[in-house]
Design goal:
Length: 213
């Protein structure tokens, strides 16, 4: 609904005062799977959104080149997706999402297809990229530890039909915070216990997290 793919049964969703159905080019949507096309190179994949939105020009391509270099994918720009690791593919998917310079990112369980070790590493990578690009992101996750480690606020939803139960601001007092560092912070277990109790009070199970740069 936020991206405009589904129409709400009632009410409207506004972004800067405009209905999202008419302004979804300002929203970047990153799915659970990377959905990179094997018949296109990594460069061809990350510039696909620019082609579809007719935004492919020297300025946007220069920005893509910069992100490929900064995030370690420039040596693989001519590679096929099958030649990359799962973590690298997710970074490519994020660059594709960021290439159109959206104001808001929607991340739908972006690490769920990765093994646990890669998941932790890529979570750190994507967190730092979002912060560096100064983007606001809404991330859906079923993983409490993941939610606490990346979020500035956690929105706890009830079971279906989902309603907002509680908003939990996350304040982690550590310098140069990253998801990995957050997991070792003294406050981490307190937040985990609070959310666990909240989610199990009535069978709720979906934390909805919002990270703001």
């Amino acid at each position: 609904m936020i991206f405009g793919l589904l129409t709400p049964e009632s009410g409207t969703i506004l972004l800067h005062g405009k209905d999202v159905k008419s302004s979804n080019e300002q929203i970047g949507y990153m799915l659970q799977k990377d959905h990179l096309f094997e018949w296109r190179s990594i460069y061809g994949n990350v510039t696909l959104g620019l082609e579809l939105q007719k935004k492919r020009n020297w300025k946007t391509l220069e920005r893509v080149d910069k992100m490929l270099k900064e995030y370690g994918l420039d040596p693989f720009r001519n590679a096929r997706p099958s030649q990359l690791s799962g973590g690298m593919r997710q970074r490519a998917a994020l660059i594709r999402t960021l290439a159109t310079d959206p104001e808001l990112l929607l991340l739908d369980e972006p690490f769920s297809s990765l093994d646990y070790q890669t998941r932790l590493t890529v979570c750190d990578d994507i967190f730092s990229i979002i912060k560096k690009e100064h983007k606001t992101a809404i991330m859906v996750t079923h993983d409490l530890s993941e939610a606490i480690s990346v979020a500035d606020r956690i929105l706890v939803l009830s079971r279906r039909p989902a309603v907002l139960k509680r908003i939990v601001p996350i304040t982690i007092k550590i310098p140069d915070r990253t998801p990995m560092k957050t997991r070792s912070a003294p406050e981490f277990k307190d937040y985990f216990n609070l959310l666990w109790k909240e989610l199990n009070a009535d069978g709720s199970h979906i934390p909805f997290t919002k990270t703001v740069s």
